[in-house]
Design goal:
Blueprint: H1 12-39, H2 42-61, H3 67-89, H4 94-109, H5 112-119, E1 157-159, E2 164-167, E3 172-173
Antiparallel strand pairs: 1-2, 2-3
Helix pairs in contact: 1-2, 1-4, 2-3, 3-4
Length: about 170
């Protein structure tokens, strides 16, 4: 049975990432406004608008199913999380929300199904593929009734763990 991918419009992880980016955009503008009012620095409000615009751009880019869209989302979410941490260290409580939302977006984007949708492959996997078979390590002894490799004629080594014969010359299981 072939697995049918969920259309982008119905994927809740992508929708949640987009909503989180839009929330970050609003938080950036609000934080810039509060900082400008508190410290009398109008540049903070402009900076908040700039970061808000970048977050809206990242939300928009996630609608496009292209590798660059995934990378833009991941990089902007990482910048939001780092910026939130820096702001939190400076005593800005809104930065806690920014940091958590940025981390949440990262968690959504690194999910295997989302990576596959954007990149066409899983890139952050730690599981070996089912067809991967390790090379026998030193200490394996040939079984008492050892045979020879049909390809090269070298004596085969029996690997008990896999209940198979291995040719050290061809480096493959027989």
């Amino acid at each position: 049975m072939e697995e049918i991918p969920i259309p982008l419009s119905q994927n809740t992880s992508i929708r949640n990432a987009q909503l989180a980016f839009l929330a970050l955009a609003g938080l950036s503008v609000i934080d810039g406004l509060i900082t400008a009012a508190r410290w009398g620095a109008p540049g903070s409000f402009i900076w908040g608008i700039f970061w808000g615009a970048l977050d809206v751009f990242a939300a928009y880019m996630l609608y496009r199913v292209e590798p660059i869209s995934w990378w833009i989302g991941l990089i902007f979410a990482g910048l939001d999380a780092i910026g939130g941490l820096i702001g939190l260290l400076g005593g800005d409580i809104i930065s806690l929300l920014v940091m958590v939302a940025g981390g949440y977006i990262i968690l959504l984007l690194i999910k295997p199904d989302i990576q596959y949708m954007y990149l066409g492959k899983i890139v952050f996997t730690t599981q070996p593929t089912p067809t991967t078979q390790p090379t026998p390590q030193v200490g394996y002894q040939p079984a008492p009734q050892a045979t020879v490799c049909p390809t090269c004629g070298t004596q085969l080594v029996y690997v008990r763990e896999y209940n198979r014969w291995y040719c050290p010359q061809c480096q493959r299981y027989i």
